[in-house]
Design goal:
about 280 residues, alpha/beta, Rossmann fold, six-stranded mixed β-sheet, four-stranded antiparallel β-sheet, 8 helices, globular
């Protein structure tokens, strides 16, 4: 068995975190005047079947952490275990296998191939796993039905709405049955109603045993998760509550100085005109 598929046999799958980092650091241009410390001693532990949000503004380090969790980059220091596997022990081929089998990626921009149908987009990762063509199409059909697109399998991305394209992307991310679904700003290109539908889908996937890690800058989106972490200047802290109520992170840096103006007309107090006769 390859190292990418091995783990500590002394523990059951339920006992092994699907994501665990210990004192993880990432430094760019180390030792130069341009040195940037993107991550500072990040400790993170996510168990199977959790829905976790990692929140922070641009430049906080959340994208760097996402790249490390997705095995797209290597840390400067610290340890990263993905489903019990020490990622630093893997060679290039084993890293590719880990990304294929352990992590499903969902991006803000969908990243669908425009000339391929929804079915073919979803089935594509199975080709890299040497799955026979007939089985690919069968599994892709089932994955699309699971996200509510069983009747749209022959449609190309241009023939689908934004929410439908994101559902195709989620089905593709799940096609290899990875233990981790890593979603980077998955609702950023969607309207509020469609975004809520995608978040509801993530909750259903969690209930079915998937682990969902959501990267976002929006406290309202993070509030849907079971647990919320906030990145600030490369440091990661778990919040006691979810979303903007407890995070101390304000998605609206310019709040309305007159909250009364946001009330509906019916809710506003009626102020009599001094010049009126009533």
């Amino acid at each position: 068995m390859s190292r990418a598929g091995s783990r500590n046999t002394g523990a059951t799958a339920a006992d092994v975190p699907v994501i665990e980092t210990r004192a993880l650091e990432k430094i760019y241009s180390e030792g130069t005047e341009a040195e940037v410390i993107a991550l500072r001693g990040v400790d993170l532990r996510i168990m199977r079947g959790e829905f976790v949000a990692i929140m922070g503004p641009s430049g906080s380090g959340k994208s760097t952490l996402m790249n490390l969790i997705g095995a797209l980059d290597t840390p400067s220091a610290g340890v990263y275990l993905c489903d019990g596997v020490d990622v630093s022990t893997l060679d290039r081929e084993e890293l590719a296998t880990l990304r294929r089998d352990k992590i499903g990626f969902v991006f803000q921009g969908f990243n669908l191939l425009p000339r391929m149908s929804a079915l073919d987009n979803v089935a594509m990762p199975l080709g890299y796993a040497n799955v026979p063509p007939a089985e690919r199409r069968e599994r892709a059909q089932a994955a699309l039905e699971a996200v509510g697109l069983g009747a749209r399998t022959g449609h190309r991305p241009s023939e689908l709405s934004g929410g439908q394209q994101q559902r195709v992307a989620i089905a593709r991310a799940l096609i290899n049955r990875p233990p981790v679904l890593l979603a980077d700003e998955p609702t950023g290109a969607l309207d509020t109603k469609t975004g809520e539908e995608i978040l509801a889908l993530f909750k259903r996937l969690r209930d079915e045993g998937h682990t969902v890690v959501l990267i976002t800058h929006d406290p309202d989106v993070a509030a849907h998760a079971d647990r919320t972490y906030v990145m600030r200047d490369g440091q990661l802290d778990e919040e006691s509550g979810a979303g903007s109520r407890d995070s101390g992170f304000d998605s609206n840096p310019n709040p309305d100085p007159n909250p009364q103006s946001r009330l509906s007309t019916d809710a506003r107090p009626v102020i009599p005109n001094p010049g009126s006769k009533s």
